[in-house]
Design brief:
This is 5-carboxymethyl-2-hydroxymuconate isomerase. With about 110 residues, the protein is α/β, with parallel strands linked by helices. The chain contains two helices and four strands; from the N terminus they run βαββαβ. It is globular.
């Protein structure tokens, strides 16, 4: 399951929920098996210069190579910038998890730990 985090200065006019939805949609265009993308947005009241940092974390998979990553990065950058209406510094990072990363679903109603 991919994960997206938006970290941005509080003066940036942005619909973070829309951006997180767009990120999920764009990931699934490039990798239909990716599924849901967990997301969080962190506006900061303490900042220096108007900016946004978008960090995406994905599991390592054979088809997620350099060409995949570049195409995904360009598509997500374009989609997010279409949501921006003011000048800001923009950063986007796509990171792949290592072999020790694990992700699953916890359900207290389940007997599994």
């Amino acid at each position: 399951m991919p994960h997206a985090e938006l970290k941005y200065s509080a003066d940036l006019e942005i619909d973070a929920e829309k951006v997180l939805q767009l990120i999920e949609e764009r990931i699934n265009v490039h990798d239909p098996a990716a599924g849901e993308c967990k997301g969080r947005a962190y506006p900061s009241n303490v900042y220096h210069h108007t900016h946004i940092l978008v960090e995406l974390s994905l599991l390592t998979k054979p088809h997620r190579d350099a060409a995949f990553s570049e195409a995904l990065r360009e598509d997500i950058e374009r989609a997010i910038k279409e949501c921006l209406c003011q000048r800001c510094y923009f950063s986007l990072a796509i990171k792949y998890s290592d072999a020790l990363y694990m992700t699953n679903v916890f359900d207290p109603k389940s007997a599994e730990v």
